[in-house]
């Protein structure tokens, strides 16, 4: 380990401070306070502890650094630039927050290497980190210390710790004894509204300790103290919180220690004063050679470790499997496995709730795809997320593949994001569809980052019955469909469920939601089809015998109703065809000719979905008949609710009258 | 205080157990475990401590009891029936979870008296309770001990405490030193998936203590211990947690203490065994007279207190104001105040961001409406929620009217629900619109309960600029519009902002979201209109000179763009009219003739909104032109983003070409 004097460390830290205040000033927008306050902590971490090699940002066994306090993005950009990440040029720093730059207002995953996750919405980063740390321990259990053994470091602010999601993350991490997770709390006592004491009096170290964390504290401007805490954390038997007492906007002569330095440019005078106070006598964006050299040396200090790791990988019998998993590619036989399963289904089409169909699909999938890690937010038996194959992943057995997430929907979703970002695993997890509301901020981030996270959301309508309106989603499918880059699937039977699972797993750059029923459904897809019809998003599932006069579009549990209506309409001399719509997103991606063919030109246009109308006008026009919900549900047996709210074959027959 | 022997208490508690297991069995659906486990705790509370009078469920100074673990609804229904709430008949109990019954699967506010809030989504109740307790302390500060001095009791389960929202609630309550808040934790060590130890190892009492709560613990089946803890809690100087160690499904011979008793009927054999074990030798739904008499006595033991309170109110000089506030009626001059403000605006129409226009409106409103309590989740200066009038509401001054909620969007929203439910205050609170995702479960409950909570959501589009896609709502307005019974307002200038505030405040049975801009907008409403045009939801804001060939619909910041496009189209000989759409919900409530008139029949139909298209087809049809977003935003200055994403007057001109 290279040793730096406290003075050297502070001078290197000042490079971060200068770049941060200069970039924010040039952009006339941004947050100088955190980077200036946390610069010493970050410098000690990056120069002495973090295992990385800036020349190979994708090294699988690198330590991960997550800036949970994402508004302090200039801290991360400065670190990446100074340590020598090739794509984080000075030009990028100068273009902070400008159109097309890699240096967005908040760190955006995929914009530049070294950005491990998108942060900004507070609390997400620390909760992602729990997922990173789970993936690390799991892969360690499977591939050994030689290939996987790294830390996940988090820099979190007061905002992250006040968000409720942090409690879910902290308590889950403590329970799982994730000893490679280390959180550095930038304890600066300031938030946007002023002093933290305006709104909070929590003893944070006591709170973490209550969830089984090791805790320590240091002066966040004393490199020796910071290093001592980090050194002690290396060999903990549980996750570690290090409370780093810092001064926000450290160095700014009048704004340091105040909310005035949090989220606005400091202004030329204050910046000049800070340069003087810090002893940083250089022009904006200029880093003197000696400082840059020291930083670049820190950036390459992991090179030998990385080379040794690469040699171990090359010599490992598990090389191929490890490489495949980290690449995100599914096993070569995956499509064949699904095809075989679909053939089995065609032989004896089952009447099942789609949540049960999902469990059956998972029995097949989890046996064939060893990288899946399932789980549920305390609804395992209801979400049917635990296939035969899976053993619990817990502090006693990280090799397990099933996480009992507890009643922590938001924490589960954010942890799954972290697992997907870490790589090597494919996370899926369940709760009731109505509780997508609880994890919506993390679902949005799955979509924004374009990562493969699969949300298994059961009890997807009033069909759940007696639990009543608090548990009955009516607007949720519609509300999920408006999130960009999110695939929302609502399969109608076991075959569609298998197809939707296949699509969700194949799609490495998009998260998916599977909306599944509690109640049993008749099989609708009776003949084997080699093609994955759900990939089309919408397709004719029941053609008309003669030229159709009526078309009925439906999804999920309402396809059964549409098919029943068709039988009655056909018999009444009104030839009817039924289109199943498992995914509006996939349909929107089809070519115009296919869309036009599926949509047709029938005069009677009907859509049935046990939710709100929003989104269906594109299928039936604004004057078509929608059969669904217009308000909240009610508590009663499911069949009575369908009758009560008029979601029936009879209503469809009447509409075509 | 009436004293009961431990034996008497247990026998009374067994009445709850019997009703609960019988009702769940008859419904063949529900959760017997919690009511049977928590029956002793609830019996001690209701017979010895809770201040209430079943004959007057709306008594303003009653203690509130909140069943945060809402799945245990039969506990509450049993208590209401046994203590003699007139509407909670045995017939209702027998119809548990049936269509039209007051006894829904989870307690639904408004279905029966004594249900103080809707619970079921876990963690909401405990967070509502913080709002109840804030309202209580605030009204106490204004109206004195004689009129307002009551407790808020919560019964919470492990699920409530694992949800992240509970941390926000706990830390806020501790910070505010809400000494009349008492949480009874039903510590039964069981959740749906099995033992809590599967998923959690948190030391809950240490966690609460870390946030400044007083904590104690008791055997939840020992009436003496329970009473001792409750007695000690009466005079605390901070919120109190009482950990009550219980056995879930207490009395069930084989299922007690297991997840098997949590969420399913026990079955006839197990019920028979429980009857035997409990010494409860009565038929289903039969309560022996002595037990019923004892319960009814408990239900009326507050009658004298209530009468004394009523006498104090009658004699109080504040009687009229207190009564008005608790009724939810606005001050008589409210409409005149708004009219005066609109007249002032018309004299000199300002160019303002609508968030600033909102602050100006609040300066007027908060001076005229003393029952408003504002706040923000740590974005006070950005949300512009603190008007001149308001002083902080904190532990030193409960008479204040502004809550620094901290970085706790979800906790804020749930607390606002509690404040609105308590009555006597009208809560509003702010964050960025994108973070409606963080509080969506509570927003949904505002809507489901039909209560007046006002969400002030600023930075409502890519117009927020450099903070980038994590902070830019693109789907949020659409996603809020699908929630039933929620008014979503997106005003276009200072006048519309005032009108939307007026509507939000007048609407006592519906929550409202105000989506407001960060960026400055030109005034669009230049002439004074006595009518509140936003009440119509959509209206012609700029008519065509001649018969229109083009119609442009827009909301909020895009109305300015629509008006600019109109000028160019008019000049090019294409007469154009512009319709402002501040609220799709209000427009949907207009009569067909008005709707048809506003929609018109122009060939060129254009809508502009800096969000996704969803919802606009009803205005422009599926073949109209929508100018807005199709994916996530980006980090850059706002004007550049509008250009980049093509949300411009030019695009509208082109579309009409």
UniProtKB/TrEMBL annotation, chains A, B:
Q: Which InterPro entries match?
A: THDP-binding (IPR029061), Transketo_C/PFOR_II (IPR009014), Transketolase-like_C_2 (IPR055152), Transketolase-like_Pyr-bd (IPR005475), Transketolase_bac-like (IPR005478), Transketolase_BS (IPR020826), Transketolase_CS (IPR049557), Transketolase_fam (IPR033247)
Q: Which residues form a coiled coil?
A: none
Q: Which residues form the active site?
A: 409 (proton donor)
What's a GO biological-process term for it?
pentose-phosphate shunt
GO cellular component terms listed in the entry, alphabetical order: cytosol
Note the SMART domains from the entry: Transket_pyr
Annotated positions binding Mg(2+): 158, 188, 190
The record's EC number reads: 2.2.1.1
UniProtKB keywords? Calcium, Magnesium, Metal-binding, Thiamine pyrophosphate, Transferase
Question: What Pfam families does the record point to?
Answer: Transket_pyr, Transketolase_C_1, Transketolase_N
Reactions catalysed, semicolon-separated, are: D-sedoheptulose 7-phosphate + D-glyceraldehyde 3-phosphate = aldehydo-D-ribose 5-phosphate + D-xylulose 5-phosphate
The Swiss-Prot or TrEMBL record annotates one GO molecular function as:
metal ion binding
Q: How is the cofactor bound?
A: Binds 1 Mg(2+) ion per subunit. Can also utilize other divalent metal cations, such as Ca(2+), Mn(2+) and Co(2+).
Q: Which cofactor does it need?
A: Mg(2+); Ca(2+); Mn(2+); Co(2+)
Residues with site note (Important for catalytic activity): 31, 262
Task: State the SUPFAM superfamilies in the record.
Answer: Thiamin diphosphate-binding fold (THDP-binding), TK C-terminal domain-like
Q: Which parts of the sequence bind thiamine diphosphate?
A: 71, 120-122, 159, 188, 262, 435
Residues binding substrate are: 31, 262, 355, 382, 459, 467, 471, 518
Summary of subunit composition and partner proteins: Homodimer.
Q: Which PANTHER family match?
A: TRANSKETOLASE (PTHR43522), TRANSKETOLASE 1-RELATED (PTHR43522:SF2)
Family indicated by similarity? Belongs to the transketolase family.
What protein name applies here?
A: Transketolase
Gene name? tkt
């Amino acid at each position: 380990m290279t040793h730096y004097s406290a003075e050297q460390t502070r001078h290197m830290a000042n490079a971060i401070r200068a770049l941060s205040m200069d970039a924010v000033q040039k952009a006339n927008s941004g947050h100088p306070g955190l980077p200036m306050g946390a610069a010493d902590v970050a410098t000690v971490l990056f120069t002495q502890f973090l295992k990385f090699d800036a020349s190979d940002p994708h090294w699988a066994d690198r330590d991960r650094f997550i800036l949970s306090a994402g508004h302090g993005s200039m801290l991360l950009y400065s670190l990446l630039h100074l340590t020598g990440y090739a794509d984080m040029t000075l030009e990028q720093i100068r273009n902070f927050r400008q159109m097309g730059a890699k240096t967005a207002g908040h760190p955006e995953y995929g914009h530049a290497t070294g950005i491990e996750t998108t942060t900004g919405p507070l609390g997400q980063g620390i909760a992602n980190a729990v997922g990173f740390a789970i993936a690390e321990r799991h892969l360690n259990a499977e591939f050994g210390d030689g290939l996987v053994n790294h830390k996940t470091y988090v820099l979190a602010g007061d905002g992250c710790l006040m968000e409720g999601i942090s409690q879910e993350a902290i308590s889950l991490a403590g329970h799982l004894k994730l000893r490679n997770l280390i959180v550095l709390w930038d304890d600066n006592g300031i938030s946007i509204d002023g002093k933290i004491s305006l709104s909070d009096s929590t003893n944070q170290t006591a709170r973490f300790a209550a969830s089984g964390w090791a805790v320590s504290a240091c002066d966040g401007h004393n490199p020796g103290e910071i290093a001592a805490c980090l050194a002690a954390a290396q060999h903990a038997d549980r996750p570690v919180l290090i409370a780093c007492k810092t001064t926000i906007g450290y160095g700014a002569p009048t704004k340091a220690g105040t909310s005035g330095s949090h989220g606005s440019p400091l202004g030329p005078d204050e910046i000049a004063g800070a340069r003087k106070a810090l002893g940083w006598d250089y022009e904006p964006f200029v880093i003197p050679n000696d400082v840059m050299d020291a930083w670049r040396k820190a950036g390459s200090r992991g090179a030998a470790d990385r080379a040794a790791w690469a040699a171990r990988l090359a010599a490992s019998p598990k090389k191929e499997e490890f490489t495949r998993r980290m690449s995100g590619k599914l096993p070569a036989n995956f499509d064949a496995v699904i095809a075989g399963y679909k053939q089995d289904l065609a032989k004896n089409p089952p009447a099942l709730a789609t949540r049960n169909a999902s469990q059956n699909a998972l029995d097949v999938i989890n046996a064939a795809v060893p990288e899946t890690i399932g789980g549920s937010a305390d609804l395992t038996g209801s979400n049917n997320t635990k296939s035969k194959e899976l053993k619990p992943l817990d502090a006693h057995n990280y090799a397990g593949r099933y996480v009992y997430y507890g009643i922590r929907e938001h924490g589960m979703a954010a942890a799954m994001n972290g697992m997907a970002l870490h790589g090597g695993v494919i996370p899926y997890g369940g709760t009731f569809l109505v509780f997508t509301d609880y994890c919506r901020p993390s679902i949005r981030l799955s979509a924004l980052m374009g990562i493969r996270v699969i949300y298994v959301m059961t009890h997807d309508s009033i069909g759940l019955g007696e639990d009543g309106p608090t548990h009955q989603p009516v607007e949720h499918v519609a509300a999920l469909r408006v999130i960009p880059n999110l695939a929302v699937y609502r399969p109608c039977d076991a075959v569609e469920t298998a197809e939707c699972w296949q699509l969700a797993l194949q799609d490495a750059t998009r998260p998916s939601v599977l909306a599944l029923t509690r109640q049993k459904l008749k099989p609708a897809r009776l003949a084997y089809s080699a093609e994955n019809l759900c990939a089309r998003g919408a397709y004719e599932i029941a053609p008309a015998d003669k030229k159709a006069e009526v078309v009925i579009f439906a999804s999920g549990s309402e396809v059964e109703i549409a098919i029943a209506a068709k039988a009655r309409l056909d018999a009444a001399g009104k030839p009817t065809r039924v289109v199943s719509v498992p995914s509006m997103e996939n349909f929107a991606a089809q070519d115009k000719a296919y869309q036009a063919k599926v949509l047709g030109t029938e005069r009677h246009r009907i859509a049935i979905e046990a939710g709100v109308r929003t989104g269906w006008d594109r299928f039936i026009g604004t004057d078509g008949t929608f059969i669904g919900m217009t308000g909240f549900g009610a508590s009663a047996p499911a069949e009575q609710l369908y009758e009560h709210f008029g979601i029936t074959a009879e209503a469809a027959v009447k509409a075509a009258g």
